[in-house]
């Protein structure tokens, strides 16, 4: 019954990735895109080739299956959530002339929606049950904002499309933009009955919104399925990676290169060995007539298999587990929970936690981020006279009992302004508040006799509320009229045009027709744009400017108010141009701006408003603490320079002993955009603090990009509004504050919380801990794999370089899965060098993360050489002990299997005791993990070396009785103890020297346990546990294995505090 236009209907775009048939093949395909997984699959294939393989296939298959399985389960859980969304989405029913599912809706269909229905497509609103086709929608699914927005149908469709018969005969042609992801913009025209009408976003109901406070509405489907704006926004956000991620990848490539070199060297060795020795030894003849070089070639691939554990397959999975745990700790932190709004901190990503410990630059919005974004009308200047400034004589606020519509929460201290209003003698004051009550886009609801305003911004709500209290009450609006109560009588004005606000115009205007026929334009906006458009005959410009400066110095937000009387002929001529611009399909916004500029000229100044936006709690202290951690803070705001500067002083970003440099004072004679950018970044980064004022959302993102590009620094952006989304997405880490401007910033962020002050704890506690834990985990992980794998290298010198293994096959399979994984995982999750109180008290502890000093190529090669040293000890001490020995019962334990048992046992003791030496924060869980790993090793070893399992699987379990035979010899236990002792002794000595001669920042702050004595029932140790409730309590009882602190004084008395002067110099 209605024409289909431009794009044919499409079926619903699936947001899930898998179904029952495609899950396994698609998931495996995605996982094998990772080079590490593909590498181990290639190894598995090599192990199937008999001439190459020296290890059973299951030594690679079992770890690979575990890794793939864990990842697949995670992907399956994520996709089940998407399936549930799809089930509730694609099967939803919306009421049309006949019921239909969403997936069946096509472009051109006319749809009927009722109250609380979700909108199934992008729909042009035609009519509704409300007057003037007004329709309220909730956009929480789009932008997270729960306050209601209103949409308006065109007057012509409202009047002519109320009945079903009229809707069935509707035959308009819609021309509009192509499908796109711009949620804030829509351009189109409707050609109907030989007349062309402009369409914009105010006429559109977008998919994902919910109909509210509207019993019924009708609309025409413009975009359906995958073409809707919300589905077009389903694309992937820019993938953010940490510095450690990049470094880790390069190190894996380095390990792979080392593996190739070592395997090649051993393969050459095998060729020479076979040429000189192997071919001449009759007892080594294997029946194959292969040349030495060919045997060397096979040996190369054999060593690629044997030494494959140098490239750690479980590294990436372990890292993801640690990051997930760290994210949960952020979510569970009660000290970042804002009880007033029941808002906990939220880690919206699990991949960036350690990057929080490396931040060098913070870029912050001002309004709603540093300030509360709760606006209060405080002062104003009208016709050159200021009000609300001289409050010395006023000790009590104005009594609003004379105004039945007044908001009782509104406070104003200057009684003289109320007296002037009530006298009705000052026309300028009357025009001032009349403008505030008329020039806005606020919607009003009447709930139980109370007027409830729905404002697009807190500023606008504060101004309309102020006018309401002073007797100019906004009552209602339609598409064409707006009604207010002026003191004691109600007046309705005809609205001829609404020239809306945007970040480029920085002003809004409304053109009204008065009851007496006069046409007047009211305008309010930033002083910079208003003063450019004032008439030469406008009065009070100087006095108003002086007042604006005073307001800015008091950190108040200002707006200028002005008006212009328009003749009927002038308006008629302008209206034609305006209508042409409204229906333009190309550059409509630019065309409208030109038309707006034409009418918004020769304005007459009335006065200015000043609104207070208070700082959030704890902002100055947070900024001061972060500055001590050498984190540079830049504030990017749209406010004027004076306001921004004074906010800088009030929040301790600027101090009196700083020298202030202004952008316009800096001379730059260089040509070229590139050189200007470099000069700006170099100059700004030399400053302790930077404030950029009058910046647009795009410019905010550009500033962040410049610092990232030219300084290679780790950046963090924090904001609370939609205008901060660009900046949040551009930075390495984006933080959203759930404030008064909706949830768009939060939905685009990596981390979210309710107050700026929580940033201090996020960075200095969680970020720092995460960085230290990850660095310690990676250093140890590389070490234990090198120590384990390189034993094969030393063994090859005594096995003819024949790619034989030094351990039992099942030990190789289970080493990373069972014997050495849990202790290092717990260090990555729970370790603390100092507790949270000391982390906040000594911000300089944050410096190692910024410098990247705890994990870099130097640390990597230290781990490599440490692994080489330990593997050398673990192989050669048992080898030397086995050369000439005899067991107590006369049996010689000098066989290959006994050697494998002794080296494996020495390795397990060494790596588990090594992680014990590296653990700073001990709990029952850590003890259990270390001792449990050793116990699991012996338990599994005795099982797989038993005769029973050999009988069942004779070819897979060949070390029958090896463990029981070897470990009953005291001589071999002494060998194990000697091996472990020599492996750990250098580490203990180096750690002692470092802590006494070259202590780190953490060592200087960390209190020694020797100063803690037994006292009363105070169980918390300053070294082992934080003063507040720790995370380990979530896992175990958390009993300290350390002594109790002394009974005297508070918790801080149990800490040997670093003197203040020394702390400043750390």
Automatic annotation (TrEMBL):
Stretches that traverse the bilayer: 32-49, 55-77, 250-274, 294-319, 777-798, 810-830, 860-884, 896-915, 927-951, 971-993
Chain sites annotated for binding Mg(2+): 365, 367, 720, 724
Keyword annotations from UniProtKB, A to Z: ATP-binding, Cell membrane, Cell projection, Endoplasmic reticulum, Golgi apparatus, Magnesium, Membrane, Metal-binding, Nucleotide-binding, Translocase, Transmembrane, Transmembrane helix
Chain ranges of the P-type ATPase C-terminal domain: 746-1000
UniProt binding sites for ATP: 365-367, 460, 501, 524, 557, 637-639, 694, 700, 723-724
Bilayer topology: Multi-pass membrane protein
Main location class: membrane
Stretch list, region Disordered: 1036-1066
Cofactor (UniProt): Mg(2+)
Positions of the catalytic residues: 365 (4-aspartylphosphate intermediate)
Record's catalysed reaction(s): a 1,2-diacyl-sn-glycero-3-phosphocholine(out) + ATP + H2O = a 1,2-diacyl-sn-glycero-3-phosphocholine(in) + ADP + phosphate + H(+); ATP + H2O + phospholipidSide 1 = ADP + phosphate + phospholipidSide 2; a 1,2-diacyl-sn-glycero-3-phospho-L-serine(out) + ATP + H2O = a 1,2-diacyl-sn-glycero-3-phospho-L-serine(in) + ADP + phosphate + H(+)
Location of this chain's protein in the cell: Apical cell membrane; Cell membrane; Cell projection; Endoplasmic reticulum
Signal peptide stretch: none
Protein's GO biological process: Golgi organization; phospholipid translocation
GO CC aspect terms: apical plasma membrane; cell projection; endoplasmic reticulum; trans-Golgi network
Recorded family membership: Belongs to the cation transport ATPase (P-type) (TC 3.A.3) family. Type IV subfamily.
Record note on quaternary structure: Component of a P4-ATPase flippase complex which consists of a catalytic alpha subunit ATP8B1 and an accessory beta subunit TMEM30A. The flippase ATP8B1:TMEM30A complex can form an intermediate phosphoenzyme in vitro. Also interacts with beta subunit TMEM30B.
Protein name in the entry: Phospholipid-transporting ATPase
Organism of provenance: Sparus aurata (Gilthead sea bream)
